[in-house]
Specification:
Blueprint (H helix, E strand, L loop, with lengths): L3 H7 L4 E3 L8 H12 L9 E7 L6 E8 L5 H7 L1 E5 L10 H13 L6 E5 L2 E5 L4 E2 L2 H4 L2 H17 L32 H8 L10 H11 L5 H21 L11 E3 L8 E3 L15 E3 L6 E3 L1 H10 L14 H19 L7 H15 L2 H16 L6 H19 L2 H4 L6 H7 L3
Parallel strand pairs: 1-5
Antiparallel strand pairs: 2-3, 3-4, 4-6, 5-6, 7-9, 8-11, 9-10
Length: about 425
């Protein structure tokens, strides 16, 4: 039976709890939140425990369980709740209202756990049983095939929704600090949002291009070096949009509903259903964390996932080879067109070849995307992670791709960098 809070969610409005998660007193604030959501947990004789996950480098993720006497581990997990608290300052780069819309949209397609409530700096949702993958798991054939099938399902069945943002006459946050002259002295700049939404003319906003534009505008510009870097990245984004935003691809207007952050920590291997003993039954995975999900070319989402085979350490020698990428894409194509109901009328090999080439073409863009993101995180995050070095590595991937594709690396008679060498490796 649904609780009162879940009934409210099912009625179409996710419950809001007017509390915040406090990182410096995490146990107390987490208990306040769960007892507000589940008041019966405080008095039903169970022991509430918190399990901290540390796979992410942006948010805090806690599993809250109520260990009541007589319940099995599976029964306890069926009632467990995940608490996700946003990292400090991340609202600068993530649209939290849009994230909630994404979660609700995915719930409608049985692709996300039930969202139970939001609070000031996070959300509470049902726990998904399963094991979180590590980068090494992504390279296992049964897992990457499962990822390919699930990602294809996302791209095939989930619609791309336009922003529910108020008309541009409504003022939105922006300021001269972002390097854009504000038309009013109030630090509210509707022209800023218009510039973001229109970065890729004719494309549904938001999308992966508008996200990168928003991030470039959010870069710090307190020094001449920072201003120069922002200007160079802005110039490069215009170049990318001109080259890539109107390429033909899968989905309506060549956009699909993309996860855009398919690293190992966001891939959950689902346990086999009780009673299933088939040793060769294919693995099944689910995806979590939808804060970066947005309409995007399918090739971007796939190439972005391939980059995560090397983990946060960016071990380029572990990225998929040509043969691995082709096999992944073949699994993806079969699943994609099966979910569309078009699999009998499709030239599979032609589609595989087309998408393989497109993913290859997009391989440098994830480095640009996450490089900008990391430059912002280096200034706002309190998490113990070297974002500044990560930014240089990821942007370095982008510039290496540019040098490879425009011929400047070969013309300068420089050695091909490790990532590009790996990408060109056949098997």
């Amino acid at each position: 039976m649904a609780t009162a809070s879940e009934a409210k969610s099912e009625a179409g409005k996710v419950r809001f709890i007017p509390l915040s998660f406090n990182q410096t007193d995490s146990n107390t604030s987490a208990l306040r939140l769960i007892y507000t959501l589940r008041p019966e947990w405080e008095h039903n004789g169970g022991k509430v425990e918190l399990v901290r996950f540390t796979d992410g480098i942006t948010n805090t993720l806690l599993k809250l369980v109520n260990k009541r006497p007589g319940l099995s581990e599976e029964e306890i997990d069926s009632e467990a709740v995940l608490l996700r608290a946003y990292g400090q300052g991340t609202s600068l780069i993530i649209d939290r209202e849009r994230e909630t819309q994404n979660h609700e949209l995915l719930m409608q397609h049985n692709l996300a756990p039930q969202l139970l409530a939001r609070f000031h700096n996070g959300m509470l949702y049902r726990f998904i049983r399963g094991s979180v993958t590590q980068p090494a798991d992504l390279r296992k054939e049964d897992i990457w095939r499962a990822v390919a099938r699930r990602l294809a399902e996302w791209h095939a069945v989930v619609p791309c929704l336009p922003s529910s943002r108020e008309p541009l006459a409504t003022e939105v946050t922006g300021s001269e600090q972002l390097g854009i002259p504000a038309p009013t002295p109030s630090r509210k700049d509707p022209a800023l949002q218009q510039a973001i939404d229109n970065v890729a003319p004719g494309k549904l906003a938001p999308n992966v291009w508008t996200v990168m534009q928003k991030w470039i505008y959010a870069l710090p510009v307190t020094s001449e070096a920072e201003k120069t870097r922002q200007a160079n990245l802005q110039k490069e984004l215009r170049r990318l949009v001109g080259e890539f935003s109107n390429r033909p691809g899968l989905g309506k207007d060549s956009l699909v509903f993309a996860h855009c952050d398919l690293l190992s920590g966001n891939v959950i291997i689902q346990p086999r259903p009780a009673g299933v003993t088939e040793p060769n039954k294919p693995a099944t995975v689910s995806f979590i964390d939808y804060e970066y999900a947005t309409p995007s070319p399918a090739a971007f989402d796939i190439s972005n996932h391939f980059a995560e085979w090397g983990g946060f350490e960016c071990e380029h020698g572990l990225l998929p080879t040509k043969s691995q990428r082709r096999d992944f894409i073949r699994e993806y194509v079969r699943s994609y067109f099966a979910h569309l109901g078009d699999d009998k009328d499709v030239d599979e090999e032609a589609e595989v070849n087309r998408l393989f080439e497109e993913v290859d073409t997009f391989r440098g863009i994830p480095g640009f995307y996450w490089g900008i993101w990391a430059l912002i995180q280096a200034t706002i995050s309190q998490i113990d992670f070297d974002y500044a070095s990560y930014a240089e590595i990821r942007l370095g991937e982008y510039w290496a791709w540019r040098a490879e594709t425009d011929g400047s690396r070969a013309a300068a008679e420089k050695e091909k960098p490790p990532r590009e060498r790996r990408w060109a490796q056949e098997a």
